[in-house]
Amino acid sequence: MKLHSINAGYFKLDGGAMFGVVPKSIWNKTNPSDSNNMIDMAMRCLLVEYGDRLVLIDNGIGDKQEAKFFGHYYLHGEDSLEKSLKHAGFGMDDITDVFLSHLHFDHCGGSIKRQRDGNGYEPAFKNATYWSNETHWLWATKPNAREKASFLKENILPIQESGQLKFTTDDAELFPGFHIKYFNGHTDGMMIPHIQYKGRTLVYMADLLPTVGHIPVPYVMAYDTRPLITLDEKASFMEQAAKEDFVLFLEHDPLNTCCTVHLTEKGIRLNQTLSLDHL
Fold this sequence. Notes:
The strands form three sheets. This protein has a seven-stranded mixed sheet. The model has no long low-confidence stretch (mean pLDDT 96). The chain has helices spanning 15-19, 24-30, 67-71, 81-87, 105-108, 134-141, 153-161, 227-244, and strands spanning 2-14, 38-50, 53-57, 97-99, 112-114, 121-123, 129-132, 165-167, 173-175, 178-183, 190-197, 200-204, 247-249, 258-264, 267-274. With 279 residues, the protein is of the alpha/beta class. It is built from eight helices and 15 strands. Strand 12, helix 8 (227-244) and strand 13 form a beta-alpha-beta unit. Helices cover 23% and strands 31% of the residues.
């Protein structure tokens, strides 16, 4: 097995929304904001190479929305999904499996592209199986009013229409050494992969832990649909991560690819940051 960090680009979100009830005077030290209170966010995907199988975990925001939509999120930087895959030595058609942690637009927007004639949509990964789960799929295709703006039908429905969609289950081993755990605080049925790699457990954190600045357990996003459930899920997970020395792969941290945590007198805190190359 070999892992590749795949950067699908950078965007910005409101810092207050990203940190919920945590005061700006605290979170601005780790995640500095601009004059609009926006903070930088990465869209860092993970490519898992299993011999002739290539599994891409999440795929960023994509490029098919209108300029007005992208204008809300201040896309910036030179990185893109296709460029990063090419840098790793692969193309879009090489991907055999697309694993979607959840279906918010910044995690699954790259799944679907416009057809060449501009009149419809088609899978961006024509040879891949797309993995979601039935619980989250139902949640996303019949969205509540609070999340509706994050579940864009053009990102989601064409996956099913293509016939390339498959569902998995909680605590499943999707591939050898690739286990799935469900978390329900951020959104119903978010999937967090636990990957056995070089004798360690690497966890793709999705929106359970967006950045290093979110490590303290109470630092929970206002975007979460059930913040108290997130609090319980996060506390339990972070305790295990500290005890078992998990490597946490950070999807949204603009500076840090991975980190580990440990237990201190103040609770769970950052132990070290590292890259995949250091594993």
